Amino acid sequence: MSDFSTARQKMVDGQVRPSDVTDIRIIEAMLAIPREAFVPEAQRSLAYLDLDIDVSAGGGTKRFLVRPAVTAKMLQAAGIGETDRVLVVGCASGYLAALAARLAQTVTATECDSALAAIAAANLAALGLGNVSVKPAPVADGDSANAPFDVILLNGAAEIAPESLYRQLKEGGRLVGAFALPGPQRAMIVTSSHGDFGHRALFDTAIPVLPGLERPPAFVF
């Protein structure tokens, strides 16, 4: 077993399973997808640590892989089925999209940094994941041309309600992400029902905010 394979097993056994992630499909996906492939080469020794890893493509926009346990818990809350169409918003270098592709029928991933979107597309293609596509797009835009989706995953936190994304859910669809609206940041699931959107808190967390979903700066006298 390679060092990365060993680290992947330890990540699942030491971070994911103790976080009450019991869905065997998610466990298998996290054991199968090489997280180190989505991390810049100089940082690959960090790939399986309990960290949000900066994978920015060198531009001014900071982008991160969300730490493994939070990623797994959000995937479990989303309840992705084998026939679901999934949108991953702010996919960074593509790790969350790769995991979702193991669970869903099709995955569309958007990324606001066009250079990073190209890196994500190359990473996913290298793994032979043919059911996922990557599009450069502002975070708040989602992918209205291909909506509605069964599941939308935010690969980061929101400090404002992303209502344009809510409207891209199917009836009964779920959006899962972290929110601070305001108050402490919590992972939440938003469900679409008869034109309305119900919110349910899942767990407390603290992950980087997605660019475009930041709270507007307060006016200072």
In words, what does this structure look like?
- With 221 residues, the chain is an alpha/beta fold.
- The chain has one domain (3-204): Vaccinia Virus protein VP39 (Rossmann fold, 3-Layer(aba) Sandwich), CATH 3.40.50.150.
- It is 27% helix and 26% strand.
- The strands form two sheets. The protein has a seven-stranded mixed beta sheet with strand order 5-4-3-6-7-8-9, with helices on one face. It has a two-stranded antiparallel sheet with strand order 1-2.
- A hairpin with a 2-residue loop joins strand 8 and strand 9 (196-204).
- The radius of gyration is 16 Å and the shape is globular.
- The termini are far apart.
Layout: helices, strands, pairs:
Elements: H1 3-16, H2 24-32, E1 53-54, E2 64-65, H3 68-78, E3 85-89, H4 95-103, E4 106-111, H5 114-126, E5 132-136, E6 149-158, H6 163-166, E7 169-179, E8 186-193, E9 196-204
Parallel strand pairs: 3-4, 3-6, 4-5, 6-7
Antiparallel strand pairs: 1-2, 7-8, 8-9
Helix pairs in contact: 1-3, 2-4
In spatial order, strands of the major sheet run 5-4-3-6-7-8-9
Fraction of residues in β-strands = 25-35%
Percentage of helical residues? 25-40%
Structural class: alpha/beta
* Number of individual domains: 1
- Tell me, what is the CATH class? Alpha Beta
Number of helices: 6
Total beta strand runs: 9
CATH architecture: 3-Layer(aba) Sandwich
- For the record, what is the CATH homologous superfamily label? Vaccinia Virus protein VP39
Query: C-alpha Rg, in Å?
Result: 16 Å
